[in-house]
Design a protein that fits this description.
This protein has 374 residues and is α/β, with parallel strands linked by helices. It folds into two domains: 226 residues, Alanine racemase (TIM Barrel); 84 residues, Lyase, Ornithine Decarboxylase, Chain A, domain 1, CATH 2.40.37.10. 26% of the residues lie in helices and 24% in strands. It is built from ten helices and 19 strands. The strands form three sheets. A nine-stranded parallel beta sheet has the order 8-7-6-5-4-3-2-10-9. Helix 3 links the parallel strand 3 and strand 4. Helix 4 crosses helix 5 and helix 6 crosses helix 7. The longest helix is centred in the middle third of the chain and has 18 residues. The radius of gyration is 24 Å and the shape is elongated. The chain starts with a strand and ends in an 18-residue tail after the last strand.
Length: 374
């Protein structure tokens, strides 16, 4: 058995840290929930935070959020697939867009439902993921401004996620200049520049973020306390809101080098043990989690004396030789998670999800009281 836990107190303290931080800078922000993969147990906790806007890249997750609390504002944060247009208008109050054809379909659906659909237009700023290229922005806006029941509430950009392009003052300045050019050309007002994500927080900390960037989308730093810009932790934030615990299902003394002719393993890797010193025996434990659930590269045992030595589809092998603790079958081993490993285990139906307090018992699911966004 394996369980991923959410520490409620630590989540709230991380939220309070960020909320004070953004309030001092007059920046609005929203919580990105995609790492939770629509799990209602954890979404209950996140939706109980005093904030009114939640972003996700899966429409099924936004549907769950709306079912839990229809009063919050939901944002679909990737270009809308044509097949999901109807659901996006239904379950997302705002969507990020880059295609005229898609916006035309969103407009038609919004008209049919007699409602307005808010959109943020994403602009390419060098990351080479989603975004309208800047040279074609005016032509693009000239076409979409004619669409009925579409309300343009912002422009935005995405950085770092695919190619690792970092935000800086010059890129944010270009984003603002694009907004000014659009507003001047078409005599319109665009309220928000959503130029900030977790990776942009250090620019604000160092007073390098222009004041006109007034909307941030935050996921990783809320849940992990990370300074994504340089892969460190922010002082005063918790990096262990989430923790993985996996049960030991076998403990045996075994050689540290396999015996026999070696071929490729499950992942297509052919291991080389030629440079490893052979010792008589080492104590090894097998825990109940595997490649089906996550990559071992993205987890670390909380007990630093434990070493991950291998993994198959649903088992992970640890070397206990240097451990100070006397483990036995049935004990659990705790692991630190990063963003990618949490994303993996949240997407695994084989890993149980629980909310805990600091003394380790499960907090019962309760009816939450939500703060309505004004």
């Amino acid at each position: 058995m394996s369980i991923v836990t959410l520490n409620r107190r630590k989540l709230r303290e991380n939220f309070n840290y960020l909320n004070r931080f953004f309030s001092k800078k007059n920046i609005e922000w929203s919580v990105v929930t995609k790492v939770l993969c629509g799990n209602d147990t954890f979404l209950y906790e996140v939706l109980s935070l005093p904030i009114g806007e939640f972003c996700d890249s899966r429409i099924s997750n936004l549907k769950t959020i709306k079912a839990l609390n229809p009063d919050v504002q939901t944002v679909y944060i990737k270009p809308v697939p044509l097949t999901f247009v109807d659901d996006v208008v239904k379950y997302a109050d705002v969507s990020f867009n880059t295609e005229v054809e898609t916006l035309s379909l969103l407009s038609s659906k919004a008209v049919s439902l007699n409602k307005f659909h808010k959109v943020v237009i994403m602009i390419e700023m060098g990351e080479l993921r989603e975004g309208v290229v800047r040279e074609k922005l005016l032509d693009f806006f000239g076409k979409i401004l004619k669409l009925p029941n579409i309300e343009i509430v912002g422009i935005g950009t995405n950085l770092c996620c695919m190619n690792g392009v970092l935000p800086d003052y010059d890129k944010m300045k270009l984003l603002h200049e694009s907004k000014q050019e659009i507003e001047k050309t078409f005599n319109i007002r665009i309220p928000y520049i959503s130029g900030g994500a977790s990776v942009s927080i250090p620019l604000v900390l160092n007073d390098e973020m222009p004041p006109y960037i007034n909307h941030f989308r935050i996921g990783e730093t809320l849940f992990f306390g990370t300074n994504v810009y340089d892969d460190t932790f922010i002082e005063g934030m918790h990096h262990d809101v989430f923790k993985l615990n996996a049960e030991i299902i076998e403990i045996k003394e075994k050689p540290n080098i396999p015996e026999g002719k070696l071929g490729t393993n499950l992942t297509g890797e052919k291991k080389d043990f030629n440079n490893l010193k052979k010792i008589k025996n080492t104590t090894r434990a097998i825990v109940d989690i595997g490649l089906l659930d996550l990559s071992p590269k993205n987890i670390k045992p909380v007990n630093k004396n434990l070493e991950i030595v291998g993994q198959s589809s649903d088992m992970l092998v640890l070397d206990l030789q240097n451990s100070y603790k006397n483990y036995k079958v049935g004990d659990t081993v705790a692991f630190e998670l990063n963003y990618m490993s949490l994303l993996s285990v949240m997407n695994s139906s084989y890993v149980e999800k629980k909310v805990i307090s600091d003394i380790g018992y499960q907090i019962k699911k309760r009816k939450n009281h939500f703060v309505k966004r004004i």
